[in-house]
Amino acid sequence: MELNVLRLKPNQDRRLRAGHLWVYSNEVDTAATPLKGLAPGEQVVVQNARGRFLGYAYVNPNSLICARLMSRQPDHPIDTPLLVHRLKVALALRARYFAQPYYRLVFGEADGLPGLVVDRYGDHLVAQIGTAGMEALRDEIVAALEKVLQPVSILWRNDSGVRELEGLDRYVEVAAGEVPDQLELVEGGCRFRVPASTGQKTGWFFDQAFNRDLLMPRVKGLRVLDVCSYVGAWGVRAAAAGAREVLCVDASASALEQVEANAALNDVGDRVRTLRGDAFDSLRELKARGERFDVIVLDPPAFIKRRKDMKQGVMAYRRLNEAALALTAREGLLVTASCSFHMDRDQLLRTVQQAARHGDRHLQLLQSGQQGPDHPVHPAIPETAYLKAFYLRVLPTL
């Protein structure tokens, strides 16, 4: 089948030649190739202004990012063999870093599969599509996953709000096999269960696994507060690592029920308690009680989802860290994280420092973390480097 051509304006191919995968609508020569005449999800040949082949992409004329490149080789169009190859390359990376099959198998652009996320829970896969181009390849994706991994089941968790930006409906649907109500995984020697169809995003936040590994040797005998705990990844692991007492705080009753179930699953139910409530309200409540904690973990959702949210989001991060610092015991440890891409590492650290000065505290940065190797960073696409984590010693002011 002959593909339509998407031709760029003069000098608008520089980012693609530098390794980027996105084409913005204002970079397209719409006189030579009318963008609005292309269907969402349609595959095209991308050319520079002189007609030179740049690669194969899929398009969405209704999106600011109107095309995403998937292949730069003329002999390798976008098809099932290409998907199989990309999956094998992605699997080889995870096999080097993970002894057990629990990780993010596909991380979108960084794995050469823009718009696709796949998480692996042993023999079960949970996949999420965020673009019209990948939606058009749904059947091919399932076929490629079955060929490479032979999973027992595949679940589509296509219920993310980002789909609306691409004109796509939200849905949760079984793609293959029989999906259990709860998925199991192992992390740091602990067993966890998460709801398959109703959990946050794809069920588990694998991106923080290596950051959790950094904390666990430092919690034995200590009192730990896990804020925005979800199903207890930080808190339950801390209890299993020897923490004297753990309090998990989350706004979701169902998430806290899962915390308790996961604590029992790891025989630490007697040392894990839960508190339901908004993070800010709960921290104020704990302060009013005179509570103090040796270790506090702040792993909130993204407060800055768009650039225009920056001012309000930065203030939210500052307020949350101020409230946590007020609960930190003398020479305590604050682990604070942000998954907001628009807030870079330096700004997050400045924001936490401002929170410390407001509370008359002194901080020492001991370690910093980022997303794990199953969330590789594409050097040409800064948006793929989104997660920051700091491990800070909290002292009285100098």
What does this structure look like?
This protein is α/β, with parallel strands linked by helices. It has helices spanning 14-17, 80-97, 132-135, 138-149, 209-215, 233-240, 253-265, 279-288, 310-325, 345-358, and strands at 4-7, 22-24, 43-47, 53-59, 65-71, 102-107, 116-121, 124-129, 153-158, 171-177, 182-187, 190-195, 223-227, 245-250, 272-276, 293-298, 328-338, 361-370, 388-396. The longest helix is centred in the N-terminal third of the chain and has 18 residues, at 80-97. The termini are far apart. The model has no long low-confidence stretch (mean pLDDT 96).
Essential attributes:
five-stranded mixed sheet, seven-stranded mixed sheet, alpha/beta, single chain, globular, 19 strands, Archaeosine Trna-guanine Transglycosylase, Chain: A, domain 4, 3 domains, Rossmann fold, 398 residues, Transcription Regulator spoIIAA
